[in-house]
Design goal:
The structure holds three protein chains of three kinds. Chain A is mainly alpha-helical. Chain A has five helices and no strands. The N terminus of chain A is likely disordered. By secondary structure, chain B is mainly alpha-helical. In chain B, about 65% of the residues lie in helices and about 0% in strands. Chain B starts with a helix and ends in a 20-residue tail after the last strand. The longest helix of chain C has about 35 residues. By secondary structure, chain C is α+β, with helices and mostly antiparallel strands. In chain C, strand 1 and strand 2 form a beta hairpin. The chains are: A mainly alpha, B mainly alpha, C alpha+beta. At the B-C interface, helix 6, helix 12, helix 13, helix 14 and helix 15 of B face helix 2, helix 3 and strand 7 of C. Bound molecules: heme-A (2 copies), dinuclear copper ion (CUA) and copper (II) ion. One heme-A sits at the interface of chains B and C.
Chain lengths: ~210, ~625, ~250
């Protein structure tokens, strides 16, 4: 994706020919650099969630505060439906990815679009939940960490959606092919990560 | 004419981006407050909230305008991405250092030079602190300013000097060492550099904030930090920028090291500097999100009145320290491991011997990485956490002495029977061995809980900090800068001034920080603007000696600046080193190599007859140093 | 072959330096007065740490100095390389195992000390410490006053008794540190922390707030008076009486 090894392009004539752009880097590992970069970035992201879960652990377990804060309710069922929505978006994402691998452009576009739509739906439901929850992050530490964790995840959904939007645009402009589809694959990995993270958030914050 | 400047990436468009971002911040705050209708948000335009939002938005606006994201915008819009024409590569004029530049060598120099600027600033703050501490009682600054001074001193030196300068040196030499034409993600590399001046500016600007700069130490413990004046937000936000920059660079290093090594360069043929940066980057990738989170919590508590650290609302005060130290202990190794790498390079070359126990050197780095994550609570022995946590923590902390000891002893064995070239880089490396051992041993003493119960948060700890950070990290930084100066600038530094620099630094360093052990044991607390009379004599000595470090640093700066301009031309390989960066011209050609070399042996086979590390096919002789950048391309 | 000064010199120099270092380390009085059982134990631990660490520092420093003297490049050796020694398994095992054993010993010893300085024998009395920006106040529960609990700005404790301080803070984190006792503990809002001291020397000692707590941090100081149990009782009764007359001694306007 980055220009690490693009072959020399347009040497500008007026100098000796031993200067001809960078030599092609040796590929010393079978793994694709952008893919590896995304994996490592996801490790970082997991640690960021880890820090928020640490906070959650301290407030809920170490501190022993009642969960959720007395007089408040967490809408487990609505969020459960929302979970299903987000999970199905992973399936459509997968569909888009396999489609482009097989050269099926319609599948790519439709898959990406439905992934995007499902993601937006998820986020809207989440925001709607915030509005109707009836308690706020500044009511108690439990509120803080509830909004903190779900909000952090919401931000990731937002980032994921931004990436998906780009992929949609590019897909509609005719980019990607069975040979060259890293641009779908890598945002896709991120999206799957966001989904899996939600399962963890949902189980710890809502279910348990 | 004028719109051309506004459309071109650069400082003018960057300024425009800042203005727009500021407007956006005002709008956002206004919208949120209006839409929310909650008592906390009753005023539509509140200076504090606007300030916090713009602290984040304005730098981003600048970066967008400056051109940091241009490529990705093209990509996102689905426009055909411009094939890389390398017009962003290399530096022909000094102005090329002040734009988004994707050449790892230019970025390396940008990093190194700007970090040294921050050393001067942070050091200047230290000298101001020492002026205040020269005598008991209040002299020049009030208590709040003093607290601000040491907080900014430490934050600047940690986040904007030691961490980035290592990233800068490695940026320059690491791709060369592994035989790569550049880093894996050159644009990300450029972006991560430009986040640093931003972080530094924010920290320094905090002095202009009402209520003074952030003043709760570089540790910013809650709830002091959550109840401090607005200057604290500058710390929290600046740390986010610096942290993002570290993570990006670390990802870049890891991917570069894993995927772009020259043919034949197996992991156990990598120079130890590469190993060191590999380990450091692992630490960064795993640990840095924790400090990001800790500052998110503080920001949320401050700006949106969350209650993460409010005990009366069910928050947990000690949680801050756990999250903070889970980053900040690994951070001390982030500040030391690259230095270990530098020392390994220099000691092998300057003793003309292979590094002793290469594999153990590499493994001990990894061992430190792993152990580094298991010891964070040794900063919290007297914090009020459950007593039992002290026991595992003291054990793991002490175990770290073993891999570190392996490194120290292997270096000593590398010296043994060598042919020691005692020039400036070598002197600093030898100084490092002794000074860091001293700091490491005081660390082991601190790790003994009962002893720490007495000296925690005293000047004994301040002494430890500076023996490991100055005697350790900064000595290795000087080592590295002298060692690679010919490669980076194409000139030789002045050896005589270098020796002066070393000896004055060594002496004044010990005079400054040695006595701190003594007053610490006697009971002088840290982070105080005034102190009991019985410590007056020692403090006077310390303050005078610290001036000496300041002057010796100026000698260094003078040496670097004047040699860079007028020093004699450097040969390609003045040290007769084997590693790849020395096999190309000084400074290296714009694309590093004409063809990627092939690695055929270990990096340190000094004394082995006929040993080579890498072979270059074709023209063996690197291009002359005089015309490093002949590649011209249209702008 | 290059002729080098004999290694004997290194050994002799190192041993002498160790001897000097350890002697200095043990004879110099590094600490403030010892006023508690804890301080005796911690100072002893410090001495052991000195004995254990001086040799390591001396080892590193003297090998560096010896190498500089013995192995430095002499004129004519510009192109000479050292012998290609890549490692030595026995040595490497040695310097892994040696420090490990030593570390193990030190840790065990320090954990024993840690256990000893935290012991609470029967008869331990309890005194409260409360921190706020920027002052300490002390609470004497009814178990001590045999009446109403007392809240005071002054800290008196009886010599020879184990005192269990229970501590908390009203605003930010502070720390209660008595250098003469060699112990400190943070005062954390929302939780109660404990600190155990066996004062064994009459006198008045500094109490220092040792956790950055804001502008007044450097001035947040107090004193602890170690008095005989009899004096302690007299003081306590007087205070309780005074308070009954004039209200609490702690003013809230600080
Ligand atoms: C470069 C940075 C750096 C490094 C490398 C270290 C290394 C170590 N540090 Fe340090 N430390 C800091 C930077 C660093 N530290 C800072 C900045 C603080 C203060 C933070 C703050 O509060 O502001 C701090 C504080 C600090 C504390 C908390 C003190 C307190 O606040 O109460 C402790 C306690 O355990 C500690 C321990 C150690 C140990 C055991 C090591 C070990 O890694 C050292 C290992 C090395 C050796 C031991 C030497 C070589 C080994 C041998 C020669 C082998 C033989 C030796 C023996 C058997 C002893 N450090
Ligand atoms: C890499 C890290 C690093 C470095 C290099 C230094 C360098 C120095 N430090 Fe720092 N220090 C820390 C990291 C570092 N420190 C940390 C982490 C803390 C803990 C903070 C906390 O409690 O939160 C600390 C705390 C600290 C304290 C304790 C403050 C307190 O607790 O009250 C003191 C006191 O003397 C001190 C002194 C010094 C001195 C004299 C130097 C000298 O080495 C400085 C030498 C001077 C120069 C290098 C400047 C040369 C420049 C000029 C002479 C002027 C030219 C200037 C311009 C052109 C702008 N430091
Ligand atoms: Cu209270 Cu410092
Ligand atoms: Cu640590």
């Amino acid at each position: 994706m980055e220009a690490l090894s693009l072959p020399a392009h347009g040497a500008h004539g007026d100098h000796h020919d031993d200067h001809h752009g960078p030599p092609t880097a040796n590929q010393s590992s079978r793994i694709d650099p952008p893919l590896l970069g995304m994996m490592l970035f996801i490790i970082s992201e997991i640690m960021l969630f880890g820090a928020f879960f640490t906070a959650y652990f301290f407030i809920r377990v170490a501190q022993g505060d009642p969960w959720p804060a007395p007089g408040t309710k967490i809408p487990v069922a609505v969020a459960g439906v929302n979970t299903a929505i987000l999970l199905s978006s992973s399936i459509t994402m997968h569909w888009a990815q396999t489609s482009i691998k097989n050269g099926n452009r319609f599948g790519l576009k439709a898959g990406m679009l439905s992934t995007f739509a499902l993601g937006v739906t998820f986020l809207s439901i989440q925001i709607n939940e915030y509005v109707h929850l009836g308690w706020a992050p500044f009511d108690s530490a439990q509120g803080s960490i509830f909004y903190g964790l779900t909000g952090l995840h919401g931000c990731h959904v937002f980032v994921g959606l931004t990436l998906l939007a780009f992929v949609n645009i590019r897909a509609n402009r005719g980019h990607y092919s069975p040979e060259e589809h890293r641009g779908v694959e890598i945002p896709g990995i991120y999206w799957h990560f966001v989904d899996i993270m939600w399962i963890v958030v949902y189980t710890t914050v809502y279910v348990i | 004419m004028s719109t051309k400047y506004l459309r071109q990436p650069g400082f003018i468009r960057g300024g425009l981006g800042m203005v727009i971002a500021f407007g956006f911040s005002m709008w956002l705050v206004w919208i949120i407050r209006m839409g929310y209708g909650h008592p906390h948000f009753t005023h539509f335009l509140d200076p504090t909230s606007i300030c916090v939002v713009s602290l984040i938005a304005v730098p981003l606006g600048f970066l967008v305008g400056f051109g940091g994201f241009d490529y990705w915008f093209y990509w996102a819009a689905g426009r055909p991405t411009r094939p890389e024409d390398h017009s962003g590569h290399g530096a022909r004029r000094w102005q090329d250092y002040f734009r988004i530049n994707t050449d790892h060598k230019v970025i390396g120099i940008q990093y190194t030079v700007s970090s040294f600027f921050f050393l001067l600033v942070g050091g200047l703050f230290a000298l101001m602190m020492r002026a205040e501490l020269a005598q008991p009682g209040a002299q020049f600054v009030d208590a709040n300013t003093y607290n601000g001074l040491f907080s900014v001193h430490a934050s600047i030196l940690i986040f904007l000097f030691v961490i980035p300068v290592f990233a800068g040196l490695a940026n320059f030499v690491l791709p060369l060492m592994i035989g790569a034409p550049d880093m894996a993600f050159p644009r990300l590399n450029a972006l991560s550099f430009w986040l640093l001046p931003i972080a530094g500016t924010i920290m320094l600007l905090s002095f202009a904030a009402p209520g003074g700069s952030f003043a709760s130490g570089w540790t910013a413990y809650a709830p002091l930090s959550t109840s401090a004046p607005i200057g604290q937000d500058f710390f929290s936000v600046a740390v986010q920028f610096a942290g993002a920059s570290s993570i990006m660079t670390a990802l870049n290093f890891l991917v570069t090291i894993i995927t772009m090594r020259a043919p034949g360069m197996s992991f156990f043929r990598m120079p130890l500097l590469v190993w060191a940066n590999f380990s450091t980057s692992l630490l960064v990738v795993i640990a840095t999100p924790f400090i990001a989170a800790s500052q998110f919590f503080v920001l949320l508590d401050r700006a949106l009145h969350f209650h993460f650290f409010d005990a009366s609302k069910g928050g947990d005060v000690l949680m801050y320290q756990h999250v903070f130290w889970f980053y900040s202990h690994p951070a001390v190794y982030i500040m030391m491991l690259p230095g270990f790498g530098i020392i390994s390079e220099v000691l092998a070359v300057k003793s003309r011997k292979p590094i002793f126990g290469y594999r153990m050197m590499a493994f001990s780095l990894l061992a430190i990485v792993v152990l580094g994550f298991t010891v964070w609570a040794h900063h919290m022995f007297v914090s009020g956490m459950s007593n039992w946590i002290r026991i595992p923590m003291t054990i793991t902390t002490c175990i770290i002495a073993v891999p570190t000891g392996i490194k120290i002893f292997s270096w000593l064995a590398t010296l043994w029977k060598g042919v020691l070239h005692l020039d400036t880089p070598m002197l600093f490396a030898l100084g490092f061995l002794a000074m860091f051992t001293c700091g490491g041993i005081s660390g082991i003493m601190l790790a003994m809980v009962p002893f720490d119960i007495h000296v925690s948060a005293t000047y004994f700890v301040v002494a430890h900090i500076h023996y490991v950070l100055f005697g350790g990290s900064v000595f290795t930084i000087f080592t590295g800068v002298y060692y690679w100066f010919p490669k980076m600038t194409g000139r030789m530094y002045d050896e005589r001034l270098g020796k002066w620099h070393f000896w004055t630094t060594l002496i004044f360093f010990n005079l400054t920080f040695g006595p701190m052990h003594i007053i610490g044991l006697e009971g002088m607390p840290r982070r105080v603007a005034t102190y009991a009379n019985k410590f007056a004599d020692w403090n006077m000595l310390i303050s005078i000696a610290s001036l000496g470090i300041g002057i010796s640093t100026l000698v260094f700066i003078y040496n670097m600046a004047s040699s860079w301009r007028r020093g004699p031309r450097a040969e390609a390989n003045p040290w007769r080193a084997l590693t790849l960066e020395w096999q190309v011209s000084s400074p290296p050609p714009i694309f590093n190599f004409d063809a990627i070399p092939t690695v055929v042996g270990g990096p340190y086979e000094y004394g082995v007859p006929g040993a080579v590390h890498g072979v270059f096919k074709g023209a063996e002789v690197p291009a002359p140093a005089s015309t490093p950048v002949t590649h011209s391309s249209g702008t | 072959m290059r002729d080098n000064p004999p290694v004997r010199w290194l050994v002799i120099g190192g041993v002498v330096a160790c001897a000097i270092g350890i002697t200095l380390g043990l004879t110099i009085n590094w600490f403030p007065v010892e006023a508690s059982k804890q301080s005796d134990k911690i100072d002893a631990l410090y001495n052991v740490l000195i004995i254990a660490s001086v040799p390591f520092f001396v080892l590193v420093a003297s090998v560096v100095i010896f190498s500089v003297v013995a192995f430095r490049m002499r004129p004519g050796e510009e192109n000479l390389d050292g012998p290609p020694i890549h490692g030595n398994t026995k040595l490497e095992i040695g310097w892994t195992a040696g420090p490990s054993m030593l570390i193990l010993g030190l840790v065990v010893y320090s954990l024993i000390v840690l256990h000893d300085i935290g012991e609470k024998p029967p008869g331990t009395i309890q005194v409260g410490v409360t921190g706020r920006q920027f002052a300490f106040s002390y609470q004497y529960p009814s178990s001590l006053t045999h009446g109403k609990p007392l809240d005071s700005n002054e800290l008196y404790i009886p010599d020879g008794k184990t005192v269990d301080f229970y501590m908390t803070s009203l605003d930010v984190i502070h720390a209660f540190w008595v250098p003469a006792f060699r112990v400190q503990q943070s005062l954390v809002p929302g939780i109660t922390t404990h600190l155990i001291v066996d004062p064994d020397r009459l006198g008045t000692y500094d109490v220092i707030c040792n956790q950055l707590c804001g502008v007044g941090h450097s001035l947040m100081r107090s004193e602890v008076h170690v008095v005989t149990p009899a004096q302690f009782q007299t003081w306590l009764t007087a205070q309780v009486k005074a308070e009954a007359v004039s209200g609490p001694t702690v003013s809230n306007t600080e």
